[in-house]
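Protocol step 4 of 5: obtain the predicted structure for the target chain.
Materials: sequence only (see below). No template structures provided, no constraints applied. The aim of this step is simply to have a reference model before the mutagenesis design in step 5. Sequence pasted as it appears in the construct record:
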Amino acid sequence: MRDLYNRQMKKMYALMTEMGALCQDAIGLSVKTLDGAEPDARELEEHVFAIDSEIDAMEREIESLCTKLLLRQQPVASDLRRVTAALKMVTDLERIGDQASDIAELSGFIRASGLENRTHLEQMAEEAIRMVRESVEAFVRLDLNLARAVIAYDDVVDGWFHRIKQELIAIIASDSSRGEECLDILMVAKYLERIGDHATNLAEWVEYAITGSRSKNGAPYVPAERSER
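Step 4 output (structure tokens):
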């Protein structure tokens, strides 16, 4: 039974890594669809939607595995925290996939505007991808320092959002007819900002998996857990 338990825990970490990688791909491709010079932009849009479907399927698979671990294996406190964290993290990862799809849905309008090259969306996306990658790495490696670094790094992504907003204000000030196009780009920046928030949530759940507490809105979150056996 212990061998089965260890295999299932190992599989959980592998699936979380795979789901995180899919989210990173979805973000990167969704921003690439905004480029008016990208010859395969429409195909990339469909690829993003397909990846989002894969992410949804992986959420269900990981939830099923975690449920089996909880009901059949009765993990001790330290492993219970990790399984609980995984169950929470897959929800944020699934939402990241949704927001990548939302970006791809806007891409046709933005490509036509030609404005994407006048903002820093690509740089913002790179920082959001970094947050997702490092939060999942922190979970697999149980690296508290990395998790806390991701939480702090959300300020960088927020900074890019405010910079892009100011860039769009300047564009509208010089040409008020571009207002609707700028609004589409602002929506993309907002989706990326939300992805950063979800990555922060991921890292906070890693913190809980390691320490047993999770700071949320200034208050520690400490769910009940089993005693060590």
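Step 4 remarks: The beta strands are 214-216, 219-221. Residues 95 and 160 are 21 Å apart (CA to CA).
Proceed to step 5.
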